[in-house]
Structure formats: C-alpha cells, structure tokens
Amino acid sequence: MSSQKSKTSKSAKARLRLGGQTFTVVQHLKHTEQGDAGDDTIALLEIVDSGGVVRYRDDFAYAVEDGGFCRASVKVISGSNGAGFLLEMTCATSAPEGGGPWQILSVSNGKISALGKPFSAMGEMGDFVPGKINKIGNATQILSDELRIRLFTGYFYVSVPLRVRWDSGLALAQNCFSQTGHGFAPDGCEMPVEHAERQPIEQELTFVRMFSESNTQTVIPEHVVVKKDSRVEILAGKVFVTLEEEESKTGIHLGVGPDIWVKVRVDGKEGWIHTEEDLQAVGLYGR
Known about the structure:
This protein is mainly beta. A hairpin with a 2-residue loop joins strand 24 and strand 25. The chain is elongated and about 70 Å long.
C-alpha cells in the first residue's frame, strides 16, 4: 500500500432555509495524498444556526472507507408531519449500485437530532413525498410522509416507499402477506419494474414454468413455450423487501430477499415466473 498523508485543507459552506430559519452547512475537508493522486475528503460536518451555534455535528465514522474519498450533501425535506434535512454521504469506494449511507435529521424548535440510524441500500435515493391530508367530515386525516428508494433487485429496479416516523425513524410503508398451509405469512409485494434489461434469447426453443399467481404453495405451474422470436414483455415484479440492522450495528440496510418473482407476457400469455433458470429463459440475467 502506498504511503498516505493528510491534513485539513479547507471548508465548504452552503446555506439552507427551513421553517423561517437559516442554517449553514459546513463541511470541513481534509486533503489526502495517496501516491500521485490526491483529493479532498470530508472530515467533519456541522450545521450552524443563524446565531453561530452549532446545532449538529457528525464526523462520519460510520461511512468513511479506508483510503476512500467521501463528500456529503444536505437538502431540506418538509412534510405533513415534520421537517428536517436529508444528509447523504458518497464515497469513491462505494459499490457501483450502492447508495448512501443517508441520515435523516429532524428539526424541531431549533434543535437538530438524528432520526434513527444511518441507512443504506443497493440503489439510489428517489423522491420525498409529504403525506396526503384528507378531510373526512369534521376530522382531518394526515398520512405519513414517505421517502422513495429506487432499489436494485439484481435484475431491475423497484420503487420502495419508506414511512418517515419523525419521532422514531424509518419503517417499510408496504407489508404484504400470502396464504400458506399454515395461515398467512409475510410475503413479497407486487411493484412496478424499472430498467429491466433483457438480453436476446439464444435458444431456438425453451419453456418457462408459469404460475397464474406468485405462489408455489397453492398454484400448479403451466409449461409455456418460449421461442427465439417470442414477444416477451416484463409487466411487474414481486419483491420481499427487508429493512434490517447491519452486522456492524452502526446502520440499517434496505435489501431484497433472494426469491424474485416477475410477471411476464409471452406471446400474449400472462403469468408469474421465478428461479434463475426461468428468468434467463426470457432474457433476464442477474447483474
């Protein structure tokens, strides 16, 4: 490993307004020289109020990789149930499909506090969606604010909503169940598919085991022929999403279970397929 030197070099500042208040985000940067290359990596982030008081400080010990060059970005998120900042760390050593870690900072009465642990995903950050406000007679219903994550399943992306609980942290906004021989059990949820990249089918003739429902417990599959020139359409996906504490216990990771179901239409015939063999038969390969 080449020698590495570092020193504090400069700071970067940005001003943000939230709830009538002005805050200054200060990134204290460190210049790291490794071999002939060098770059500025964040050493400390502070959020300062208009009176010059530091309301939040983070040294990013949970995110910085050995030898990696990391920067942070902060943006305002304001919902129907609360408001704060979304802090995102990006490092040069991150996996190509990896996203985060992110940290939600809740702002209330001038106080800034981390909302739960940092979280990451094999994917990228989507939109923040304020909860809908519905009038029901004299009552007012306020739905939860949500963050949308574009989560990579290994074959394609799906949009996963996370409920923002401003008093405690994040939770999955969708929880699905299916009937088994022992009653209902947690199952994947059907979701729209994004960027499903199919490869040309090489075999002249093959088949897939197509299910009328995404369930191997109660449904008998039909063998559907797939030809080299068959018209194949990807209609939806069914993914079991997990939101679990990392082994290091320093953060939370959003991931998917191993059994990916895909709703397809093959020459006009619709149904569900799964298993690596059947997905490859329609041109879907893990990447």
